[in-house]
Design a protein that fits this description.
The protein has 31 helices and 21 strands. It has 769 residues and is an alpha/beta fold. The two termini are 40 Å apart.
């Protein structure tokens, strides 16, 4: 059995290869052609690990222009195996050149075409007897026979049935949709090679919609597997194949890697690897090809990863060319702050703080991601980075994705710093205009040394006098553009240092490949005295018992979060559920204070409830996912999540991270509605088994695949077409080492240039934030 993860990743690969737009087009085509849910069928197809686009290929053919190129294309169709006729309402064709269709797939240069590698192969190298094919049954076979009869029947619907026979038996080819010309093409006496899945129907053996080819007796069979390429609308396989073959005749095949390196790494040569992948010889290890573990694939993956690593290193060099104000002073404020802290930094906090301090001293901008599991204590590290900026005479800004979180940071950090004489300003979208202007003025005059807020901070109107450091909490919740804007608010044309924080741990290989040019610091230790959270998965119909438990916990002096189900389709419904849950719980627990917080409340109302909860005036807090990030109430030690099956893994982990912050033993109860689907089951099991954010992230990656894991806006363009971060992590390491060596060897320069030119062709579309 394959891991579900690999399905997800393969799925991503397909979509990457095709491009989303194309995928959608295909989906709709299939939908339009066959009815039913195209998505379901694609999904099933992925699950079976084959991608039966070919079955639907012909639907792409009918909107072709009547140009010279297209005539050629139709010839191709006739001479090859295309057998499916147009869908009923063939749209009038628009003249779109093959070039522009190729360009839509991102295939512009000859090298683009040469590096457009097959997603799978078909074996047409063998023809077997009809009798043998019948015995095999159920499988895809290729047979050859003479048409003995060609009839059109109308029951149950119009279809063409072509009978063929060889010396050993006979077979029916059934076509539900067909052109008139096909009837003539498949006239009695014609020799035809048909390939498809053989079934034993009521009237005997048959193939439904086989691919076929009219041949002469003794026509040679292909000697290599037939590649099937990712394609798009109006671009047939034969056309693609020809374009690729033509390009292969024109490109410069010079290996970009020096022979010594190829030998040392035991890599395939570039040209033989590419040629093998386009035209695999009959005796090739098909399994290794399909699995992409064949050395030819390894070479492609290595080259791709190397190009990526080289490009990342270059982005890093470019960043270092930019100026930033060195924030060198770790002075009196920092010292006072540290002395006033009610706890000592953990070893991990002290270590990452040193890393950050060293970066801040540089005259070029820091770009560091601070990763640490929920509750690992990132805030205090961020605050210490800010004191260094302030000690050095600069301003710092801290941006958080939600008002609740920003406000919490504001209260906490202002509470720490204001007694030390630091002016902290507060800026969010919900402020009254007057207050907003006042906060902006404080930033602009430089009077506020620290400005904390939401994305209101990045609005055009907000200027800073001397912005030296930007801190972004839960950075994955911000778009690339938002982070960039804040970066452009530096003083005197200088770029501020940037510290990004995330509690969504990103596995190392992902961090290395998806985040351009980012140093990573990890807090891998929780503050002392935490007891691990115990997680239970409980059927929804035992809700009453759970309520009793909540009651008992509250009487015990503990506080409880009750998280309402996520209702993605409707925010209104989600709100309603939250309100109802609040009412039910309040009624069931008359001796307790039950509070409610949700996303639609005014910030002041939210804050009031949160304050009451923090002060333990509210025992049970009913909440929507607004509490997902950053809320810090150490006395809360029981969390109930309703319909936990609807949440994603990282979301569940974030939510659960709201408890287990104090010294009391914490419990998380995941209520689910049965029956559970396999993915939800897996997620809940993961939650029960581990509280380690990295392990959870790893499994999440396995279940979802990296593209979705990071979100499109996070990963920018999905950069890797061939390498698979899950299985090819070892290659990432090697590529990085080689990139490093090449860049530090003067003789490596031409290699770097040639390699980047081949693989990126000047398109270094990398994330530079
Ligand atoms: P996160 O990394 O999730 O943002 P926080 O910064 O909110 O975590 O810290 C979680 C809690 O741990 C806070 O109450 C914080 O004051 C506390 N904390 C942070 N560092 C330490 C430490 N070294 N020792 C004890 N408690 C700490
Ligand atoms: Mg935090």
């Amino acid at each position: 059995m394959q891991q579900p993860g690999s399905t997800a990743i393969r799925q991503r690969k397909l979509s990457d290869a095709l491009g989303w737009q194309v995928k959608i087009e295909i989906g709709e085509r299939i939908h339009g052609c066959n009815g039913g849910s195209a998505h379901d069928r694609l999904q099933q197809a992925h699950d079976r690990r084959t991608i039966p686009l070919k079955k639907h290929w012909a639907t792409f053919y009918f909107t072709l222009p009547r140009s010279h190129r297209v005539k050629k294309h139709h010839e191709n169709m006739a001479e090859t195996k295309q057998s499916k006729p147009p869908a009923k309402k063939a749209a009038p064709s628009k003249a779109v050149s093959t070039e522009s269709k190729l360009a839509r797939l991102g295939l512009r240069t000859d090298m683009d075409l040469v590096l457009h590698l097959p997603m799978r192969y078909e074996d047409e190298t063998e023809v077997i007897d009809i009798r043998a094919a019948c015995l095999r049954g159920g499988q895809t076979s290729q047979v050859e026979g003479i048409v003995t009869k060609n009839e059109i029947t109308y029951k149950p619907r119009k279809q063409m049935i072509v009978h063929i026979a060889d010396d050993t038996g006979e077979l029916m080819l059934r076509f539900m949709n067909f052109y008139g010309s096909q009837t003539r093409q498949l006239a009695e006496g014609t020799r035809v090679r048909a390939r498809g899945e053989l079934k034993h129907g009521f009237f005997g053996a048959e193939m439904v919609h086989p691919s076929y080819k009219i041949v002469n007796e003794g026509a040679p069979l292909p000697t290599s597997l037939t590649p099937v390429y990712p394609s798009g609308e109006g671009l047939s396989q034969p056309v693609l194949r020809r374009a690729i073959a033509d390009a292969m005749g024109r490109v410069d095949w010079t290996d970009t890697l020096p022979p010594r390196l190829i030998e040392k790494m035991q890599l395939h040569g570039f040209e033989p690897a590419v040629r093998l992948l386009h035209n695999p010889p009959q005796q090739v290890d098909e399994h290794a090809l399909a699995e992409r573990s064949h050395p030819a694939w390894t070479r492609m993956k290595f080259d791709e990863l190397l190009a990526q690593q080289l490009s990342l290193k270059r982005a890093q060099d470019a960043r270092r060319q930019k100026g930033a104000a060195p924030l060198a002073a770790v002075g009196s404020l920092t010292a006072a702050f540290q002395a006033a802290l009610p706890f000592r930094l953990t070893g991990a906090q002290a270590r990452v703080l040193e890393e950050i301090r060293a970066d801040l001293r540089q005259p070029y901008p820091m770009q560091r991601l601070l990763q640490g599991d929920v509750g690992s204590g990132k805030t205090v590290v961020a605050a210490l980075a800010a004191t260094q900026a302030i000690d050095s005479g600069f301003q710092a800004a801290l941006m958080a994705p939600t008002e609740i979180l920003a406000e919490q940071h504001f209260r906490k950090i202002a509470g720490w710093m204001e007694p030390l004489g630091v002016k902290v300003a507060w800026l969010t979208g919900s402020l009254k205009k007057k207050d907003k202007m006042a906060a902006s003025a404080l930033a602009e005059s430089g009077e506020a040394q620290l400005v904390i807020g939401t994305h209101a901070l990045i609005q055009e109107t907000v200027q800073f006098a001397r912005l030296g450091l930007v801190i972004v909490d839960e950075q994955h919740r911000f778009g690339v553009g938002q982070r960039l804007t804040l970066r452009n608010k530096g003083a005197d044309g200088l770029v501020p240092h940037q510290l990004m924080m995330s509690a969504t741990p990103i596995p190392r290989t992902l961090a290395m490949t998806y985040y351009a040019d980012l140093e990573v610091s990890v807090i891998d230790e929780l503050p002392p005295g935490r007891t691990p959270i115990v997680t239970r998965v409980i059927d929804q119909n035992r809700r009453d018992e759970v309520i009793e438990r909540v009651h008992a916990a509250a009487l015990d002096g503990r506080q409880v979060y009750w998280v309402c189900p996520l209702i993605e389709e409707s925010e209104a419904l989600q709100l309603q559920t939250a309100t109802e849950t609040h009412e039910t719980l309040a009624a069931a627990l008359p001796d307790l204070q039950v509070g409610l917080v949700h996303g639609r409340m005014k910030p002041a109302e939210k804050q009031e409830v949160m304050d009451a909860f923090t002060a333990a005036r509210v025992h049970v807090l009913v909440a929507t996912t607004v509490i997902e990030v950053g809320v810090d109430v150490p006395n809360a030690s029981l969390m109930v999540i309703e319909h936990a099956e609807r949440f994603g893994l990282s979301q569940l982990h974030q939510l659960r991270g709201r408890v287990g912050r104090g010294s009391a033993a914490s419990v998380c109860l995941l209520l689910y509605q049965s029956p559970l689907g396999p993915v939800a089951k897996q997620r809940l099991a993961t939650m029960r088994e581990t509280t380690d954010g990295f392990e959870i992230a790893r499994r999440d990656l396995e279940i979802r695949g990296p593209g979705e894991f990071l979100g499109a806006r996070q990963s920018g363009q999905a950069m890797l077409r061939f390498a698979d971060l899950e299985t090819d992590g070892w290659l990432v390491d090697q590529a990085r080492d080689v990139a490093h060596a090449l860049l530090h060897d003067p003789a490596g320069q031409p290699v770097v240039e040639a390699h980047l030119e081949r693989w990126l062709g000047g398109r270094e579309e990398f994330l530079k934030v």
